[in-house]
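Sample intake sheet
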Amino acid sequence: MIDTIIEAKVPEYRKIWEEICNIESPTAYKPGVDAVGKYITEWAKKKGFAVKSLPQEVSGDPLCITLNADVDAAPIAMGAHMDTVHPVGTFGTPAVRVEGDMIYGPGVCDCKGCVTMGMMVLDVLKESGYRDRPVMLLVDSDEETGSMGSNKATINWMCQQAKDAVAFFNIEAHTEGKAVMWRKGIARFRFTVSGKKAHSGACYVGANAIAQAAHMIIDLEQYKTPDGLTCNCGMISGGTTPNTVPGECTFVADFRCGTDEERQTAIDAANRVCATEYVPGCSATWEQMSYRVAMPLVDRNLELLNKVNSILESAGLTTLEVAFAQGGSDANDATAHGIPAIDNLGIWGGNVHSNAEFAQLDSLTPCTKRMVTIIKGM
C-alpha cells in the first residue's frame, strides 16, 4: 500500500522540488526565504496540515508543519532548512535544470530537495491513515549561518516545538547506509588588526596591518586535524590604496570543534595571536561572530539509531551505520536540547555549496519510503 501511494505522488513532488528550488533563497535574502516559506505554507494548508511560524525581522520565518496535531501522544519531528548559500543569479535563469535523473541548482540537495521529501512523507502518512503520533516538519530559515541572523531564535523555536519528541530526524542529504551521529560545532571569530598608515615610499615608518594579519593567519591555519580541531581563514579585507601602508585589516576564522576542549583551544589560539606583535607597531583584537554547539556521540541518540535499525531490518530495508560529519547542522542544536536525534536521512546528492550542486531525482522514492517506514514503526 505504501509503495503504491508513494509512486502515485512522485510526479507531484518532483514538480514541487523544482519549483521551490527556482525560488532563490540565500540566507541573507529574507524576501526569497519567505517566498519559499509561503509556498510551503500554502501547500500545507491545502493538504490540511497545521501551520505555525515565527516572524523574524532579519532572517526568514521558520515553519512548523504538523500532521495529526490533535493526537495526544509524543510527536516525531523532521528537520530541514529552506535557505541556501548561493547568491541570487549564481545558476542563471531559470536557476534549476533537469537532465535525466539529475537535478541541478541552488538547494536541490542542501536542503530543498530534503524539504520536498519531508513534505511528501507527511502527505503519504496522511493518505495511509497514520494516526499514532503528531509528525512535525520543522523548516529552518537561517541554518546555513548557524541561525546567526536571528540570534538563534529560529533554531531555539524549532527545538521548543520538538521538545517532547521521541525523535528528531534531520533530513539533510543522505549517504546510503550511513547515519550521521557525530558532528563538529562551529566557532566563527572576526579579527581586527590595527597598524600605522604611511606612504609606501616610507613604509619603514609604518606598521603594516595586512602583514600582521598574514602572520596571524599562518599561525591559525596550523589546525587541520580531520577528526579534531580545524581552522579556515576564509575572508580578509584591508588597505586603502596600493601606495599606502594599511592601517587596518580584518579577517574571519572558521573553527570546527568536536568538543568543548577543542573550542577552548580555538579561544586560546585567538588570544595568543592577538597578543603576539608579529609586526612592530601592530595590535589585534577578536570577537565571536557565531557559535554552533557540537553534536557529540551520546547514548540517547545511539539508542534511537538501534530502534531505527530494528524497524528497517524488520521491513527488509538497509540498516544504518554510525557516521561522522565535519560541518554543523540543526541536529547539533536538537541534541544540545536533549532531543534524541539522527542526522542526514534525506535524499541523495552532492557538490553542496558549489555551482555544481546536484541531487538524484530517483532518490525521492526510496528515501521517502525509508522515512515513512521509520515513523510508522516508532
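Comment: The chain has two domains: 2-183+295-377, 185-292. The chain has a mean pLDDT of 96.
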